[in-house]
C-alpha cells in the first residue's frame, strides 16, 4: 500500500494525511510504554466486568488449543522428519499468564495434533520466571536448535539455546539446555535488561555466518538488534541494527523472512535467496502484528523498508483483529511459508478460570507477497479444507438494498464459507477519506453494517440469533480513491453477544483494490464456535475475532446470511459453504 514505485498517488495521500493529522508521538509513546509496563499484568484486550457464562461450547473445534490452562505465543514452528512441530507459551499450572514453558505438539497435517511432553521448563536461574518466546533454526548438519528468551527471577532477559537430546527422533521429545547458557545477554549501552527478547529464526549471510534478530528497547526506542555467530552458540552483537524505529519503544516477537513478489511458494532463509526477493520484517506492538516490506541490503547487513512510514498507526498489519506474536516458518514439505498467530480470549479472566482454558492459535496460514511486492497475502493452509463436509453451492444471487440470503444446510457453529461479491456498478461508491486509515476501528463503527452507503456494506452475518439481536457482521464497503478503489473490511463484534461488558470492537482494515479489473471481492470466513476468522480480497485483509454469543450456549442455534445494505445491488456470483468436522486437537497425549 505504501509503495513509492507503484505511484498511484498514494504517497501523496499519506503526506497530506500526516500534515492534516500530525502524529502525536508523545501520547503514542506513553501508550506503548504503558503497554510494556503492564506486560507483567495483562497486556491484551480482555473484558473486565462481564456477565458470566461458562460453557465448553465456546471451545473451538478446529483451532489449535491445549486441553486446559493459559497459552499465548506460538514458538519455533518447524517441519522436521515428516512432522510439523508447534511449540507455544504455556502456563502449566494456571489459566492466567505466568510461569511460561514451551509446550509442544506435533502433527502430520497441520490439522490434527498430538500433545507431547513439555519441551522447555523453568529449570535454571536464567529462566526461573519463564522460558519465553523464540524460534527454531535447522542448522547445516540438519540438527534443529531452539533459541528462546530466559526470564530470570526479576524478569531480566537473556537469549538461551537448547538442542534435541536425540535429533534422530522425529518427535523431538526431549531438549537439553547446554551449560553455555545464556548465550546472549543484554550487554551494551542503551539496552534495557527487561526489554530484550524473542530471537528470530537464524539466517546465513554471504560470509557464511549465522545471523538472528532480537526484539529490544534501545535508548528508549524499538529495535531489531542483529547478532552474528559462526557456530550458533557463541554470538556477538553487530554494531549496527537490523532495523529500528523511534515511533515505538519496544518490539516483541520480530519475524524476518524473504519472499518473491507474486509467488505463493516460500523461501528458506538459510538457503540462497534470489536477487529479486524482498524481505519482510514483522514486529508485535500495540496488541497487534505489524510489518514492513523492503530489501535486505547484503553489503550493509541491514533491512531497508521500501517506504518509511513514521506514524505507526499506518503500518501494515498481518491481521486487523485479535492476533498477536505471530511466527512464520518455511515448510520444506510443501515449499511454502506458514504463519501462526495467537488469539487471546476476550471474555473475562474469571470466565477463563471457570472454563479452565484461555487462548487459541489462529489457523496456520500460507503467507506470500502480492505481485507488486507491496503487501502480504494470507490464506488458511489447504489442509484445513480436509475438514469440510456437505458442500452448499449457490450462484447468481442478486442482493438488492436490504436483502438477506440465508445460507441453510450448514452447521452454522462450525463452518467455512466462501463468497464472491460482484457489484452491478461502481458508480455509486462514496469518496475515500485518507484520515480513516488512522483509526479503522472507529471508521468501522461509523460505517456500520446497517448504515447504507453507495457501494456496501455487503457481506456475511454469522452466529445470528433468530431475532438478529445477536450477530457478528463481516462486511465490505467500497470507496473511490484517486486511481483504484479502497475497500474497507470490518468484523463487527458489537452485537456478537447479549452478554454485557464483553470486549466487542468493530475490527477493520482497508485494502487497495483494482475493482475495475478484478470485478469481484471475495470473502472467506471460518466460524469455529468462539472464533470467527475472515480473509477479505483473497487474503489482503485478515481479521481474527473471538465471540461469545448466548445463542451458541443455550442451543437456540444460529443463522448465517449473505447481505447487502448498500444502495447499489450486488451479485453473489458464487457462494460455497461447508460444515466443518471437529479435528483431533491435542485430545491425546503421545
Ligand atoms: N510473550 C512472551 C514474550 C513475548 C510476549 C512471554 C509476546 O517473550 O515478548 O510469554 O506476547
Automatic annotation (TrEMBL):
Domain Glycosyl hydrolase family 32 C-terminal positions: 383-579
Q: Which reaction does it catalyse?
A: Hydrolysis of terminal, non-reducing (2->1)-linked beta-D-fructofuranose residues in fructans
Task: Respond yes or no to whether keyword Zinc-finger is given for this record.
Answer: no
- Enzyme Commission number(s): 3.2.1.153
Q: Where is the composition biased (Polar residues)?
A: 192-202
Q: Where is this region: Disordered?
A: 182-202
Q: Which SMART domains match?
A: Glyco_32
Alphabetically sorted, this entry's keywords are: Disulfide bond, Glycoprotein, Glycosidase, Hydrolase, Signal
The GO molecular function terms of this record are: fructan beta-(2,1)-fructosidase activity
Q: Which residues form the signal peptide?
A: 1-26
- Keyword field contains DNA-binding: no
Which species expresses this protein natively?
A: Triticum aestivum (Wheat)
Concerning PROSITE patterns, the annotation shows: GLYCOSYL_HYDROL_F32
Q: Which residues form the Glycosyl hydrolase family 32 N-terminal domain?
A: 63-380
By sequence similarity, the record places it as follows: Belongs to the glycosyl hydrolase 32 family.
Q: Which InterPro entries does this one have?
A: ConA-like_dom_sf, Fructan_Metab_Enzymes, Glyco_hydro_32, Glyco_hydro_32_AS, Glyco_hydro_32_C, Glyco_hydro_32_N, Glyco_hydro_beta-prop_sf
**Which Gene Ontology BP annotations are present?**
carbohydrate metabolic process
Database matches in Pfam families: Glyco_hydro_32C, Glyco_hydro_32N
Q: What is this protein called?
A: fructan beta-(2,1)-fructosidase
Amino acid at each position: 500500500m505504501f509503495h513509492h514505485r507503484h505511484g498511484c498517488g498514494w504517497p501523496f495521500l499519506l503526506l497530506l494525511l500526516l500534515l492534516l493529522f500530525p502524529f502525536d508521538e508523545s501520547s503514542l509513546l506513553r501508550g506503548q510504554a504503558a503497554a510494556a509496563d503492564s506486560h507483567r499484568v495483562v497486556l491484551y484486550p480482555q473484558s473486565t466486568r462481564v456477565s458470566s457464562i461458562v460453557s465448553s461450547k465456546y471451545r473451538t473445534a478446529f483451532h489449535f488449543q491445549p486441553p486446559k490452562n493459559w497459552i499465548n505465543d506460538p514458538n519455533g514452528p518447524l517441519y522436521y522428519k515428516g512432522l510439523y512441530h508447534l511449540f507455544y507459551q504455556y502456563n502449566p499450572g494456571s489459566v492466567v499468564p505466568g510461569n511460561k514453558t514451551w509446550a509442544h505438539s506435533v502433527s502430520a497435517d497441520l490439522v490434527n495434533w498430538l500433545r507431547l511432553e513439555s519441551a522447555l521448563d523453568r529449570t535454571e536461574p536464567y529462566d526461573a520466571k519463564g522460558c519465553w518466546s523464540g524460534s527454531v533454526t535447522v542448522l547445516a548438519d540438519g540438527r534443529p536448535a531452539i533459541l528462546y528468551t530466559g526470564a530470570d527471577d526479576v524478569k531480566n532477559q537473556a537469549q538461551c539455546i537448547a538442542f534435541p537430546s536425540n535429533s534422530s527422533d522425529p518427535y523431538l521429545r526431549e531438549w537439553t539446555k547446554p551449560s553455555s547458557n545464556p548465550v546472549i545477554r543484554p550487554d551494551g549501552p542503551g539496552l534495557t535488561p527487561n526489554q530484550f527478547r524473542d530471537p528470530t529464526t537464524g539466517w546465513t549471510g554471504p560470509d557464511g555466518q549465522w545471523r538472528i534478530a532480537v526484539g529490544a528497547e534501545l535508548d528508549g526506542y524499538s529495535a531489531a538488534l542483529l547478532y552474528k555467530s559462526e557456530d550458533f552458540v557463541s554470538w556477538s552483537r553487530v554494531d549496527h541494527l537490523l532495523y529500528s524505529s523511534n515511533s515505538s519503544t519496544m518490539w516483541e516477537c520480530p519475524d524476518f523472512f524473504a519472499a518473491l513478489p507474486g509467488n505463493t511458494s516460500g523461501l528458506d532463509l538459510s538457503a540462497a535467496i534470489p536477487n529479486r526477493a524482498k524481505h519482510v520484517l514483522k514486529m508485535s506492538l500495540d496488541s497487534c502484528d505489524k510489518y514492513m516490506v523492503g530489501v535486505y541490503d547484503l553489503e550493509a547487513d541491514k533491512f531497508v523498508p521500501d517506504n518509511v512510514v513514521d506514524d505507526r498507526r499506518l503500518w501494515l498489519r498481518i491481521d486487523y483483529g485479535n492476533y498477536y506474536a505471530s511466527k512464520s516458518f518455511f515448510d520444506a514439505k510443501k515449499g511454502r511459508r506458514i504463519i501462526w498467530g495467537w488469539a487471546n480470549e476476550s471474555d473475562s479472566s474469571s470466565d477463563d478460570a471457570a472454563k479452565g482454558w484461555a487462548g487459541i492459535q489462529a489457523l496456520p496460514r500460507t503467507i506470500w507477497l502480492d505481485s507488486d511486492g507491496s503487501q502480504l497475502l494470507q490464506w488458511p493452509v489447504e489442509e484445513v479444507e480436509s475438514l469440510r463436509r456437505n458442500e452448499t453451492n449457490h450462484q447468481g444471487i442478486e442482493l438488492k438494498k436490504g436483502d438477506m440470503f440465508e445460507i441453510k444446510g450448514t452447521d452454522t457453529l462450525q463452518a467455512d464459507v466462501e463468497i464472491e461479491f460482484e457489484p452491478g456498478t461502481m458508480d455509486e461508491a462514496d469518496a475515500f477519506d485518507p484520515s480513516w486509515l488512522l483509526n479503522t476501528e472507529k471508521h468501522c463503527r461509523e460505517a456500520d453494517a446497517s448504515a447504507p452507503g453507495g457501494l456496501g456494506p455487503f457481506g456475511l452475518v454469522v452466529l445470528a440469533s433468530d431475532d438478529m439481536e445477536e450477530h457478528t457482521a463481516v462486511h465490505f464497503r467500497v470507496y473511490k480513491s484517486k486511481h483504484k478503489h479502497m475497500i474497507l473490511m470490518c468484523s463487527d463484534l458489537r452485537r456478537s453477544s447479549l452478554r454485557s461488558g464483553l470486549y466487542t470492537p468493530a475490527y477493520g482494515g482497508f485494502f487497495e483494490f483494482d475493482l475495475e479489473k478484478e470485478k469481484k471481492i471475495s470473502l472467506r470466513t471460518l466460524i469455529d464456535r468462539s472464533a470467527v476468522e475472515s480473509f477479505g480480497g483473497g487474503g489482503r485483509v485478515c481479521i481474527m475475532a473471538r465471540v461469545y454469543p448466548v445463542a451458541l450456549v443455550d442451543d437456540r442455534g444460529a443463522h448465517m446470511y449473505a447481505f447487502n445494505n448498500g444502495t447499489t445491488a450486488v451479485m453473489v456470483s458464487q457462494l460455497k459453504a461447508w460444515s466443518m468436522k471437529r479435528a483431533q486437537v491435542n485430545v491425546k497425549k503421545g
